[in-house]
């Protein structure tokens, strides 16, 4: 189904479906858990170390064996419920630091110090299938056998892979519903006249085999757009300006931390090889590699009225990526951690919002009724490239 301007956007009422709760047992939580989800960046967990991770309203233990292999298991030890991430790594096993119970990567208890008659065979904590891909540690948190892991048409041999992350204090849906029109007001370009509406594209959106395709037709004949891959991935090939325009693949997972916050994992593959790749990596500064480290604090100041976005835009030492993140963060968090849909008024420019909400309403309703969900694919390369 496609929604186009100048149609008046209308969303089917779905009062019986609340898409915002993401914890265990919620409809959205169950749906998101039926897909592989990244839990953290690869760089955040060193070999022989553990890390606590809170995602989708749950706590998990992510650890690497001494070999470097990542594993994801339950947050607490089955014995006295101590936090496992502070434990000892032995090979690919994890020993609880409190009383020394040992678990293998499957969650099976294999050793119980202090027990004259061990009962390891009766103790097993939850473990989760784990895959490392494009600088992220992904896990399948759902029930039953995991679906095939979906790999985009890029890997770490296709160029320079950069992984960025930020936390935004609002539902992941606020970010997923970020429409095309916002670019002209949230990220204004020099010379753009807000009052000249003829400069604004006509926006279109349609459901596809992979999720949502959106595009805008500009008056000058140009097009802009991208793809949202269900359930929570933004996918956009574009060109990064590095003297020349270098083809770059952008993939971003928007993963809920809980109902009121989410973490974005952004992977950019800059398609350079050999000497050009090395020259590019050497040119990258710490700010380039960590553009979002302090944007939450700046966003807070904007929302508190201590700064304006116009003030921030004048900072000479603030990267474009950092400014863009603050601009998006202020507007999305400014909707509320969970927006008030009851009192909003959608229009034709909200084509992507309308189609996405219709998809979610159908998928969550089908899940509630035990109807098989739609099997989503990945965007064909030609389709996504046409929107760049």
Key attributes of the depicted protein:
four-stranded antiparallel sheet; disordered N terminus; eight-stranded antiparallel sheet; 388 residues; globular; alpha+beta
Describe it.
The structure is a single chain. With 388 residues, the chain is an alpha+beta fold. Helix content is 21%, strand content 29%. The chain contains 10 helices and 19 strands. It has helices at 27-33, 172-176, 183-186, 274-283, 286-289, 295-303, 309-313, 320-333, 351-369, 381-386, and strands at 2-4, 36-41, 50-55, 58-64, 70-74, 88-90, 93-95, 102-103, 109-111, 127-128, 130-133, 136-140, 160-168, 202-207, 211-217, 223-229, 233-242, 244-258, 261-270. The longest helix has 19 residues, at 351-369. The radius of gyration is 23 Å and the shape is globular. Mean pLDDT is 90; it is low at 1-15 and 382-388.
Short characterization:
21% of the residues lie in helices and 29% in strands.
Mean pLDDT: 90
What class, by secondary structure content? alpha+beta
Uncertain runs: 1-15, 382-388
**Main sheet?**
8 strands, antiparallel
Shape: globular
Helix and strand sequence: EHEEEEEEEEEEEEHHEEEEEEHHHHHHH
Q: Give the neighbour order of strands across the main sheet.
A: 1-14-15-16-17-18-19-13
Number of strands: 19
> Percent of residues in helical segments?
10-25%
Query: What separation lies between the terminal Cα atoms?
Result: 22 Å
Please state roughly what percent of the residues sit in beta strands, choosing from under 5%, 5-15%, 15-25%, 25-35%, 35-45% or over 45%.
25-35%
Number of contiguous helices: 10
Radius of gyration: 23 Å
